[in-house]
Amino acid sequence: MEPYRPRRSVLYVPASSDKALAKIAQLSCDAIIVDLEDAVAPADKVAARQKLAGIVANRPVANHFGHHCEMVVRINALASEWGADDLLAAANCEPDGILLPKVDTPRDLLEAGDVLDDNFAPDSVKLWAMIETPKALLNIGAIAELGRDPASRLTCFVAGTNDLANDTGVLATPDRRYLVPWLMQMVLAARAGGLDMLDGVFNDFRDLEALARECTEAAAMGFDGKTLIHPAQIEAANRAFVPSTETIAGARLVKDAFALAENAGKGVIALNGRMVERLHLAQAEKLLAKAAAIGA
To answer: Are the beta carbons of 156 and 147 closer than 8 angstroms?
Structure first.
């Protein structure tokens, strides 16, 4: 099993913006998505792609806070005029991951994986998938199943809530009431496939209070983190997706209880008046690993 990587805060940075890219090492986010897609105008896409090798090669080993910051490249859709060249360029740069937009079926990921394999991209280059179309939601179980096969490289889903609302005509209300059923479907599929699941962006980067509420709700829904569009949003996401002190203490109690000699081999034990199973031990160990990786 790969070590836990926190993905609480994942910031989109336009590949065409030297000013934004220069600030990466000073940010406290867990991951950066160097964006060749939505954040780059059509006239600038080729120039942005040509800068990609330098961007990835010069990424900081650790950010200002001493933590490793993943670098992922979001390419244009493979069906677009830029997608195929974007994928080849990203494969040759060997980032931590490549985010595929407009994924509709498992075949989209398998074909991208074949390109990576044919170009000798190391296994460390993973695939992330945007879930942002009606077809993706209809096929999400089959797409997520690829996560159980390491050869597929698939490791993370990203909710594309803006595109999903646009394609379906669903009203994107502040409480996201009409999107929540689909968001929960994404979380369920991601868990079935052993994948991380990131929430979509919050568009009003000036309203940090509303962002914090949405992050807290996303954490309660089971998301691993949130995609962001502005550095000002990082702190709220980092705070929302950290296990609480009480939760960490409870996980330690469970782990310590199962470690006692008298509980060796037991499937169920009594702890502080409640029954605790081995599945709770697995949950506790996962949570403690997450807390350790974050530094909580």
So the answer is: no
